Amino acid sequence: MTSPSPPRNAALAKVGGPQGFLPPKARKTGTTIAGLIYKVSGQGQGWAGGAGAGGVCQGELWGWGRWGTGGLVTQGLCPRWGCGAGSPSQGEVWCQEQVWGWLWGADLPHISPQEGVILGADTRATDDMVVADKNCEKIHFIAPNIYCCGAGVAADAEVTTQLLSSNMELHSLSTGRLPRVATACRFLKQMLFRYQGHIGASLILGGVDSTGPHLYSVHPHGSTSKLPFTSMGSGAPAAIAVLEDRFKPDMELAEAQELLADAITAGVLSDLGSGSNVDLCVITRGGAQTLRPFRTPIPHGQRQGRYRYRAGTTAVLSEAVAPLRLQLLDETVTGMDVD
Amino acid sequence: MAPYGTRLFSAGATLKMAAPAYGAREGTVAAAPARCTDSVRARVTKMEAGGMRLPLPFWAGSPAPGELYSLTCPSAAGPGLESQAGGGGPLTRTQNPMVTGTSVLGVKFDGGVVIAADMLGSYGSLARFRNISRIMKVNDNTVLGASGDYADFQYLKQVIDQMIIDEELLGDGHSYSPKAIHSWLTRAMYSRRSKMNPLWNTVVIGGFYNGESFLGYVDMLGVAYEDPTLATGYGAYLAQPLMREVLEKKPILTKDEARDLIERCMKILYYRDARSFNRYELAIVTEKGVEVEGPLSVETNWDIAHLIRGFE
């Protein structure tokens, strides 16, 4: 909305509506955002949540060639950037499990390709009771393996996630490692606490790093919770009800996607601050995939553009013809004055 | 100037019957009934000529037509209770609920309705009374569940029970239908709110009458509606989306499906409502009558605790 020019007369003063001209308020995303961690059991030992015995992921260090290449180059996917392209040290790839198992003989986290984080969000941005943006993007990029959903004040969510993304990239370049979700979480909470809740950003941070998939919810005052599933925003009660009802720690990707989409859909349908489409973002060890839109719960009507009704649209049930009897009462003739 | 009523009388001779009855009840109208329009017109002119006269009340305890309720005087129903505002303000009673009950859920199914409410009376954040029933059986085809202030629910229960007794004493074979109870309650709640003295409750009325299920909602403002699924309080945010989702896929449920849905919703409410309790009652109304089951408990699963580990 552009700022209005001063009205030239009283009539124009009413153009802005019954209240007159009002400056646009800070736009809020009254939202439904949600996230969950899915894992298919039987695909490995599962994630211990920590970095394992050493406290540092040795695989990452190895990957950077710090320890020398030796003779341990084996097959496997490089978790950094997901495919082997862009991996450090001249395209060298290495298999975490084999390296760790051989080096340490310990149970270190095995991140199976069949586990990850799914983040979901609706696409409505509201300005009080008006829909400001009916298809905005609430799933923000932080790093190739970390995404963040934002609810609350739109500007706060947007700028905070951009700041986070920028700092995570710098940090990642500095450490030479794939960014960790816990680092992003720590950054967010330290910043938001500093601002004592004045930055109204409620965020759901999710990603897969070298230690596994992680999901955090971050509140405007700076508190965080590490959870297997969560929801935020005005549609949070609706979404959390669906998640509480059907979440299982052991789900296939398709089932997990449907569950999360149903959770966001519950928010879209039952909460007036949420609406339009459902966006999803699936993050696995192999990378992230944003599905925008994933689902449109309320399909829009098609505008025809033609509103003429063809003859016969309204069915004629019966017809009655009655003559209109008129009686000539009076007749006057007046000449037209043409002079 | 003339009261509204006389204008009606002068308009039509058919209202002759109304005049004597009205006069008899009030006892203040002029003795001669309006037998013809002439005398009424004469009365009208006499009143106008007589100058200002207070409009005659149409009914006891309520304002004359065109006047507002006088909130400063104590109502006829409550003598001896002085205005809490110390004169000049309205006489108000329940302004803050004390002992409260949380959500009540209701779902219609094919052949009846099911209503559920937990058995907790909270005193703010204290779980004070852990075995109270918030569901009452009205008669053989109606149940009523209430959330909000428990004292107001107890009063309502007393009033409704007496109403049912009086109705049975008539012995005419008729009993109140759920729709009748709902309609009466709507008016009663609205009337109380209009006197700035509400019954601080949100009520769900469920019943089965004449082969049809009924599920209605009345709240302390007098807002009333019917719906196949209802939830009050926090249930509206947590349980209602789930219930609607199920009903959208299958508009007519069986009794077991409805019961299952309610149980799932009670579980989620126990997880996510901070003023809920894991003991609840279930009332099922079918053509066979009313069945109140309780106390029941939901089975909770806290296994996800094991999934929460790591750095923050």
UniProtKB/TrEMBL annotation, chain A:
EC number(s) per entry: 3.4.25.1
Residues forming coiled coils: none
BP terms from Gene Ontology: proteolysis involved in protein catabolic process
Protein's UniProt keywords contain Nucleus: yes
Domain Proteasome beta subunit C-terminal stretches: 301-333
UniProt-listed PANTHER family: METALLOPROTEASE TLDD, PROTEASOME SUBUNIT BETA TYPE-7
Protein name: proteasome endopeptidase complex
TrEMBL record, chain B:
Gene3D superfamilies to which the protein is assigned, alphabetical: Glutamine Phosphoribosylpyrophosphate, subunit 1, domain 1
Protein name in UniProt: Proteasome subunit beta
PANTHER family: METALLOPROTEASE TLDD (PTHR32194), PROTEASOME SUBUNIT BETA (PTHR32194:SF6)
Xref: InterPro entries: Ntn_hydrolases_N, Proteasome_beta4, Proteasome_bsu_CS, Proteasome_sua/b, Proteasome_suB-type
The family this protein is said to belong to: Belongs to the peptidase T1B family.
GO CC list: cytoplasm; nucleus; proteasome core complex
Classification via Pfam families: Proteasome
Keyword Transcription belongs to the record: no
